[in-house]
Design a protein that fits this description.
Largest sheet: 8 strands, parallel, barrel
Number of helices: 12
Bound molecules: 2-phosphoglycolic acid
Number of strands: 8
Helix content: 40-55%
Shape: globular
Distance between the termini: 20 Å
Strand order of the largest sheet: 1-2-3-4-5-6-7-8
Strand content: 15-25%
């Protein structure tokens, strides 16, 4: 049985003080993690104080990115081992903004997924999709090839630690969410691809989230879908009351 996840992605927003205040406002109002997990991804500089503020609560703090090396001459990068040592156990990898604005490709994301798992982190791997590809009927090929490339060469035992976030680029930050039936179709396709790679049992245990303009009006219909195990919300995660409404939908 897959336990659902409601995750927030703040992107490059909030000061450290605002981040800690936010955690203090929500931490006593979250579901038991055995029923539903709550994850909040935040800018690197806010992570350590957020972990401290969240101590003893079910809230899990996530990084929005990390590098694929543990240490060395990589100015400006964050090591997965350093994240783990600071009690940060989740990391978003391959968000479409990283792919588009920072030229991250599948090969690099695959290296990051391996490095994150080796350091003990649970990666949330984003799989984007575009309207153009949907209209041209290329969606199937695209989603399958993304998953094959990003999860390449992972050990079966590690795949279950990975969460996938299916995020059509045109739905991100636009207020135009994907129709739940289409979102289900994308998430189902991802699960089938993982089943082809690792078998049904492992595919059944991998959590697959939908992301792209998730809000308090569409979360219930999205999460009612069989292959959608939760959401990754950007804009709707920035306000503590709205985020709590998503979490306790
Ligand atoms: P959005 O962002 O909810 O603001 O569309 C989602 C994301 O980028 O993960």
């Amino acid at each position: 049985m897959r336990s659902p996840i409601v995750a927030g992605n703040w992107k490059m927003n909030k000061t450290v003080e605002e981040a800690v205040d936010f955690v203090n406002q929500i931490k006593d109002h979250l579901p038991d993690p055995s029923v539903q997990e709550t994850v909040l991804a935040a800018p690197t500089i806010a992570l350590v104080p957020m972990v401290k503020a969240a101590q003893g609560s079910p809230l899990k703090i996530a990084a929005e990115n990390c590098y694929y090396k543990d240490a060395g001459a990589y100015t400006g990068e964050t090591s997965p081992t350093t994240l783990y040592s600071a009690n940060i156990h989740h990391v978003i990898l391959g968000h479409s903004e990283r792919r588009r604005l920072f030229n991250e490709n599948d090969q690099m994301i695959n290296l990051k997924v391996h490095a994150a798992l080796a350091a003990g982190l649970c990666p949330i791997v984003c799989c984007d999709d575009t309207m153009g590809r949907r209209v041209a009927g290329k969606k199937v090929h695209w989603v399958v090839s993304r998953i094959l490339a990003d999860l390449h060469d992972l050990k079966a035992a590690d795949v279950e630690k990975v969460t996938i976030a299916y995020e059509p680029s045109w739905a991100i930050g636009t207020g135009e969410s994907m129709d739940p039936a289409q979102a289900e179709e994308g998430c189902y396709l991802i699960r089938q691809t993982i089943a082809d790679m690792y078998g049904d049992e492992i595919a059944d245990n991998v959590r697959i989230l939908y992301g792209g303009s998730v809000n308090t009006s569409n979360i219930n219909r999205l999460m009612a879908s069989e292959d959608i195990d939760g959401v990754l919300a950007g804009g709707a995660s920035l306000d503590p009351d709205t985020f709590l409404n998503l979490v306790n939908h």
